[in-house]
Amino acid sequence: MQAQQQNGQPSILQNQVVVFSKNYLPLARVNLKRAIVLLVTGQAESLFSSTQQWEVRSPSVILQIPEHIRLTSVNPERHWKVPPVSRREVFRRDNHTCQYCGSTKHLTLDHVIPRSKGGGHTWDNVVTACQTCNATKADRLLHETGMVLRTKPKAPIHPAIAFAEQFWKEQAPVDT
């Protein structure tokens, strides 16, 4: 999609470029300015030459910026850790919705397997619950209450993997 300047002319510097890792894993979308820096400094190279390219001119050079670039080196400092279980992160993961009834009011945290019965404070055991459902479940297991989780709790995944999954879903051909 072409961005527009105030005078109606397209501003190609607002376009997005997909950055792939050295191992061809799509990592992120960056604007054209960042892509230029990566290409000029040798940190990235052009990828998939048959895709769209944008021409960027300076007084001394004309650059062809492709729609996809690949990093040429690995940054060993960029390690990602699973964040600790916290109220804010659990609410974000569960979309601020009770995982038993779907309510968005008076939310609390609930341990699927109660701590008193050996359940830990881990990503796969903590869910968002409204006060009513949390009180109904109390200190019991799900099969004892007849309650059912809407989604299975799980730890957040690496942001690059989440982006890659979304990228490949967008690239899938549409069935007609």
Provide key terms for this protein.
elongated; two-stranded antiparallel sheet; 4-stranded mixed sheet; 176 residues; 5 helices; 8 strands; alpha+beta; 23% helix; disordered N terminus
**Biggest sheet character:** 4 strands, mixed
Query: Which spans have pLDDT < 50 for at least 5 consecutive residues?
Result: 1-5
Instruction: Tell me the β content.
Output: 15-25%
Q: Give the SSE order as H and E letters.
A: EEHEEEEHEEHHH
Task: Describe the strand arrangement of the main beta sheet, using strand numbers.
Answer: 2-1-6-3
The CA-CA distance between the termini, in Å, is: 23 Å
The average pLDDT score comes to: 85
**SS class:** alpha+beta
Helix content bin: 10-25%
Principal-axes geometry comes out as elongated
In DSSP terms, counting alpha (H) and pi (I) runs of 4 or more, how many helices?
A: 5
Query: What gyration radius follows from the Cα positions, in whole Å?
Result: 23 Å
| Strands, total number | 8
Concise summary:
This protein is an alpha+beta fold and 176 residues long.
Question: Could you characterize what this model shows?
Answer:
With 176 residues, the protein is α+β, with helices and mostly antiparallel strands. The protein contains 5 helices and 8 strands; from the N terminus they run ββαββββαββααα. A 4-stranded mixed β-sheet has the order 2-1-6-3. Strands 4-5 form a two-stranded antiparallel sheet. A two-stranded antiparallel sheet has the order 7-8. 16% of the residues are buried. The N terminus is likely disordered. InterPro entries: HNH (IPR002711), HNH_nuc (IPR003615), NA-targeting_endonuclease (IPR052892).
